[in-house]
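Deviation from plan, reported transparently: pyridine-2,4-dicarboxylic acid complex.
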Amino acid sequence: MKIFGLIFLFVSALHAEFSLQTLSMSPRVYLIPDFLSEAECDYIIQAARPHLQRSTVLDDHGINGDVVDSRRSSKGMFFPSNHQDPVLRSIDHRIAQLTGLPVANGEAIQVLAYQMGAEYQPHFDFFSPDTPGGAAQLKRGGQRVATVIMYLNTPEAGGETIFPTVKISVTPHKGTALVFYSCTPDGKVDPLTLHGGAPVIAGEKWIATKWLHERIFY
Ligand code: PD2
Ligand code: ZN
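Because the crystal trials were delayed, the predicted structure below was used instead.
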């Protein structure tokens, strides 16, 4: 991307104002249209595309670390957490403004690409302290308290983000962000946040995700 394009993206991001649509108060789920510009979405896809690998899930038993699992059939990549990319930095700061959680509490931005038929079956983003895998993760900045999903394109059909317990279904739309809190305001994990990515029916689906912790993540 040309330097003027980068400067434009950066300056426009400094003036971020969010219009939040409340989808649910329990669990806390919000939608933010136009959270990312079209140019930012295209930039992220282009930067991520050469680095995609089959996505993994955390092995709860703590024996195998991250493992490939048919319940999550996307491809993905993480940008380095110490990146100096001005576009990604401005998004990190926008997410901090949106969630009220410091940039330092966030994991690296992850990009996920779902081809036709790919999905992420319902799961929780919080960690269970009762499994060795979950307990190990909790040592890195504590619980995951919030998730931000940013839709980088508009799939032709399917690919909704679903919350089966509370019957919410969000149709992906380029530039929109979805934020939800995996913990209740009193700090307990919220079982109502069970959520998944429905299979893509036509076209492909691209998202960027950010998980935020209660303390500094390292
Ligand atoms: O792709 C999605 O819509 C989705 C659904 C559930 C992504 C995630 N979880 C995630 O990345 O945690
Ligand atoms: Zn999730």
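Helices lie at 3-14, 38-48, 86-99, 132-138. We consider this an acceptable substitute for the interim report.
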